[in-house]
Amino acid sequence: MADQRSCPSPLHDFATWKPVLRLLRGGGETEQAASSIRVVGRIGRQGWSLPRQRRLPRPDRAARAEDMQDEMRVVERVRRALADAGVDDVPFTAEISATGKTELRLFGSSPAVEPGLGDPHPGSLILVEGAVPQPWLRLPDPVPGAAPAPSADPALLGRTLHERLPDAIGATEAEIAATEARLGVTLPEELKALYRVTRSRWEDRIDDHTAAERECGAVGCELFALDDLYVAEASSRHCLWKLAAMEAVVTPPDAAVQGLVGSPGWIVFGDNGGGDRLAVDLTPGPRGHKGQIIILGHEENIGACLVADSLTDLVMRRPGERGDGTGGDRPPAVAHVNIRSLPSIEAAVHPGLEVLSIGVWEDEPLSLAPVTGLPRLRTLAAYPGTLADPMEIAGLTTLEFLELGPEEWRALLDAGAVPRSLSAAAITAHGIQNPLPIVAIANEILALWDRPRITQTVLEGDVGPIRR
């Protein structure tokens, strides 16, 4: 911790924050106005979260930017300071006395801590540098005998696109070869046939304002330029640890598409106009075809859906009719125990269980004894107060991610029982306004792995007395 009162950086100048604090004092815990109030928030270059009740718009219209001009004005000053300092965002907390004397704490970033999900508390703690959740390491399973669909017809595809796009400029064989070298993969014949008709470069149609629309109609998607093709490996699908650790790779035996995060055989060539990516799939599921067309949803962290059995089918408007596989009666790899899902931990137990999430629970706290010894259990997320004995976690030797409430973490830390198998961790802080105790626990956990801690900068100043 450092006192930065004399620091010349605008970000660490109390004057930069004073207008924000004056604004928040009016929306803080007013019942404490006779003594002091605490305000907590986060301001970032892309947005902010402040504990302030905004003025309601008129009943006859929706909220507008002008309804929060005062907030935007004071926040913008801080955001300029963030940009000058090269900082993305800053969580903060301030204790403001009735006289206006204020202690402001700014929480610094750490390369070992991910951003919180919209609140000032720290996100996931990365305990092992470079570690990624297990699903992000999974490669496609081999599918012996996988072959293109009978409908795949590069010649028909090429003729059809030439008819629909007679003036398009196609890629040369040298350009196609250069793309293959860049990607490290041989393009399937259908994809080559498509780009021999149009290489889809914007500079080829800069004077034709409807060319992109015609191309989209001809192909069936917003086509990427040949130079923009990419392989949708797992690393291309970024996801916070807290969310990614709750996923599992599952490919039922009757699936057309493997339930992967990414694959070296998923070649992305287009977009559906809503941010979902279309790809040629060279690593299909057990019931799929090599070269089938799949879509990767931008709101999904894992998996893909079948669109067409071949690129020819996509262009000819013949969508695939096969399902994605049901998995039969196999028990789920991800189990949720809470008041609306599974009624007990025992109901979740099976050798393939990878993720156990214990949510809101109204009965007696639960024992983890039933899952002790499960060979694949790698994630445990338990809502505060749901565990009968947090010390049972010490028996879960395969965990890579653990999310607990502050009291449960406190018990493990005091007993020296934090599992050393962890690659990442998180602290559930629902309902806790003050980030200071959460940051303290986070730093204790980081210290066990000798990872960079969350820093604090203390600024002191005066925002003036509360107006009566």
* Fraction of residues in β-strands: 15-25%
Mean pLDDT over the full residue set: 90
Radius of gyration (CA) equals 27 Å
Biggest sheet character: 6 strands, mixed
Portion of residues within helices: 10-25%
Q: Rough shape?
A: flat
Low-confidence stretches: 1-6, 28-33
- The overall strand count is 18
* Straight-line N-to-C gap: 35 Å
Write the H/E string, N to C.
EHEEHEEEHHHHEEHEEEEHEEEEHEHE
Q: How many individual helices?
A: 10
Strand order of the largest sheet: 1-18-5-4-2-3
Structural class by SSE content? alpha/beta
How would you sum up this structure, described in words?
Helix 3 (154-164) packs parallel to helix 5 and helix 9 (406-415) runs parallel beside helix 10 (436-448). The model is unreliable at 1-6 and 28-33 (pLDDT under 50). The chain starts with a strand and ends in a 6-residue tail after the last strand. It is built from ten helices and 18 strands. The chain has helices at 14-25, 69-85, 154-164, 173-183, 189-197, 211-219, 241-244, 311-315, 406-415, 436-448, and strands at residues 2-3, 36-44, 48-49, 89-97, 101-107, 125-126, 222-223, 230-231, 266-271, 277-281, 292-296, 305-308, 334-337, 355-358, 379-382, 401-404, 424-427, 456-462. Strand 9 (266-271) and strand 10 (277-281) form a beta hairpin. The chain has a six-stranded mixed sheet with strand order 1-18-5-4-2-3. The chain has a six-stranded mixed sheet with strand order 6-17-16-15-14-13. Strands 7, 8, 9, 10, 11 and 12 form a six-stranded antiparallel sheet that branches. 38% of the residues are buried. By secondary structure, the chain is of the alpha/beta class. Helix content is 22%, strand content 18%.
